[in-house]
Design brief:
With about 300 residues, the chain is of the alpha+beta class. The chain has nine helices and 15 strands. The chain is about 30% helix and about 20% strand.
């Protein structure tokens, strides 16, 4: 069955649970889709010929005006050159079609992203295609909530650990929103959510037992790879333990050849003179922070290696 056949079948199946926003105007559908910065796939055209906007459980399909406006604001998501944003989750999340396989899940795959923190590493794969996505939502599935909950819970646990061990680290005043966004502009990529929340708690800190010092957010440095052609740095240098540097991965890390293919928000240890492809992935940032807080081994800067992709 082709994707178009699957889309036609899906629209028949979801009709019972679909709440139409307004009936489509064929000429307006054609005009808006033709004007999108990224050529839309045929299954999106079928969706808008079925209904202009609408509601399916927790998903709100954009009306044509929203579809047009959101996808022309490219400065907000320069890291998504072939994405078409077509729906929201009723909150801060948007859904997009990856028309060019930028995310590595195949052309036409559906992803969720947090529009307040637009980066590859925070995107959550939801389905292999638009019809598969609609059928999953119709069945009551919410795959975009599972990974986001894990990220937020592990970050909350990290902050709770800091609160539980106030004598184990030296704090600084919290970073402001302006501090965080100015740093992101200077580095060229958004900060991973756990690192952003850590800075909002303390804009720089020193762990007394492990001796690891985390810099203030405006002192973070993007680690670019010469001649790589990358638009965003794959690493953000953010901490040091004597001569050892620590960096956190960004969405661009996966594009490097020869590295462990983890997602955004993992800590990487860089020994003096070490090339980036030889750097060791320590673990998921919130877990590493907890290890630095209360190290239990002789290798206090190494972290416990746990993580989530």
């Amino acid at each position: 069955m082709t994707t178009l056949d699957a889309m036609r079948a899906a629209l028949v199946q979801i009709r019972e649970g679909w709440e139409v926003y307004q009936e489509p105007n064929a000429a307006e559908v054609a005009r808006v889709l033709a004007g999108l910065p990224t050529p839309p796939p045929p299954e999106l055209r079928l969706l808008y010929e079925f209904s202009e906007g609408g509601y399916l459980n927790d998903v709100e399909i954009f009306v044509l005006l929203e579809l047009e406006q959101v996808n022309h604001e490219r400065r907000y998501f320069r890291d998504f050159p072939s994405a078409i944003f077509f729906a929201g989750d009723g909150g801060d999340g948007w859904f997009f079609i990856d028309t060019g396989d930028d995310m590595g899940h195949g052309e036409g795959a559906i992803f969720w992203c947090d529009r307040a923190s637009m980066s590859w590493g925070r995107c959550i794969p939801c389905a292999e295609s638009l019809p598969a996505f609609l059928l999953a939502v119709h069945a009551g599935e919410t795959p975009w909530l599972e990974r986001d909950d894990l990220i937020r819970q592990s970050t909350a646990d990290m902050l709770a650990a800091l609160d539980a061990h106030p004598d184990a680290w030296l704090p600084a005043p919290p970073a402001t929103v302006d501090d965080i966004y100015t740093a992101a502009e200077q580095i060229g990529v958004m900060l991973p959510y756990p690192l952003k929340e850590l800075m909002r708690r303390s804009n720089g800190l020193i762990f007394a037992r492990s001796g690891v010092a985390v810099a203030g957010v405006r002192e973070f440095v993007g680690f670019d790879i010469p001649l790589s052609g990358m638009e965003a740095p794959p690493l953000i240098l953010f901490a040091r333990q004597q001569a050892i540097q620590f960096a956190v991965t960004t969405h661009a890390w996966r594009a490097l050849a020869g590295v462990e293919p983890v997602g955004e928000g993992f800590v990487v240890r860089l020994q003096p003179g070490q090339v980036v492809t030889q750097a060791a992935v320590v673990g998921w940032l919130p877990y590493v922070i907890e290890d630095w807080l209360t190290p239990v081994t002789a290798h206090e800067g190494e972290g416990n290696g746990n993580g989530t992709q």
